[in-house]
Amino acid sequence: MKPADEIRRLIHESQIAAGPGADERMLRGALDELEERRRRATAHPEPALWRIIMTSRTTKIAAAAGITIAALIAFHFIGNPVGSTLTFAQVIQPILRASTAEFDIIVGKEDGGAPIIHDMVMGSRIRRTVPAVGDDVTIIDLEAGRILTFSETKEEAQYISLEGLPPIPNYMDHLKNVLLMLDKSPDFVVEDLGVQEIDGREVVGFLAKHPRTGITLWADAETGLPVRIEQNEGQMRTICKNMQFDVDMDESLFSMDVPEGYTVRQETTLDLQAGTEEAFIEGLRLLAERFNDGRFPDGVAVEDYLKQAPDVAKKTEAMNLTSEEQVALGQTIQNYLLFTRFFQGEGEWTYQGQGVMLGQAETPIFWYRPKDSETYRVIYGDLHAEDVAPEDLPEPLPPVEGIDPSAGYHSWSRPGFVGSQETFYYVLPDARVRVEGWLTLLRGPQDASLLPIRLPHANATLESVRLGESGRPAQDSVALAFEKTGDGTYNIALPLGRLSLGQTLLICQWHLPLDAFSLEQGKYWVDLQSLIPVVSYKVSVGVDPNSGFELTIPPTDAWANPFTSAVVEKPTTNFGRCTLVIRKRR
Asked: What is the pTM of this model?
């Protein structure tokens, strides 16, 4: 069944009639019913949903949180074109009597590097910004099925129409029916997590579980208002936090009118049915060719793209595209994301393209089982796709999680390399910075003789590579040959015999002018990007005594350490950004 058909079916199933004043009656009736059940529960314990909810710390907290969970679950089933939490405040607004709401959204893990999405909600409209990506503002009108996006810097605007989505009715029309439906559903379970403290605030938690989704909701222990929601849906996780209700907002911030003097670009359409396999393949090709130096992305879920979004925005800006070209590029990316966001196959999809270069025709990078199909579709590194019987599928690669940096180098069945890295920045007297990336290899393909790397600055030139032993980098080190493959990308020739003997530390050196680093409010900023996917990353900064600069934090053995990551579960190349912790000598 297509996404839009599923949405229409679920809306139809939950439809009930409502007339004038129905909103108030439904809400009052639902709350009265909850209170009556609470009183009865003291003598006759209720099963399932209400029994668990009403044994919480106070009736007020439990009722508010319980209704909110019900609203969340039901609205999730109705569907959402741009993410399950994006209209969360719209759903609970008539329940919590809030006319406005404001909150932050993270797609993926909270410490996973994805930018924070900031939403302001008034009625059926949402004002969205993503500060880490740029100054673009997006106004979403769910009732009209239309989006306005504009750039305050470029003074350009564009409308986007939502297709494949039926009108979303006032949610209060469905509340009473939803509450009764959930109370009777054997598949819906709510677990009381009790009272805990989050960010210095006492909260009451509930874990709501259903075969289609799982939601953890945290409500303020005094007001009963939600402050944080964590949702797992299929292979995607979202976090909604810093929630506030009844915030004073200027209605003009939600206007769907283009600001005066702005240039209006060609209107486009976001069609929920456009997430086809062909669109997914074209998105993979685009990301590899134009944004990742011929390498496939580390992941293909929405949260993976959001981590890459700031870099995509920066590189798109440098392309100097026409308005028509920008529209086409954006359309390709959005249709690519729709394929996994509204995945319509059976079971889960599998992606193992991390570290694979575009053109590797024998390497499978993605496979899934289409609906009602006896075979799987497998996409390979040259982006051709084949039908494959279940017994002929590629063997799933072992999970990457749990690589111990102290365990040394081992070969594995994955196509890419994984390591740990420390990058040294040393400020020289001639307004240049010497950069050394100390990369310790931990995993690599069997018999692989070339290591592809990418420098964090595309305009930098790799000058030398030496191979040594961790802990003794200068002893018996040897120079390695390397070849440039693109802007900032190189292949390094690996001596396999030395790797097996424990010489796994590569020291890559290049220089940059100091003005290559972004200068913001008197501070130099550096992008924390490793040469290959790594499980840990550290930055050390030093200054030449004759450079005219000094460190702003106390050094250890002449080096300051502005950034040290914990060991991450999944290897990545992006750790955000930090300052160089230097200033003009005083």
From this structure: 0.48
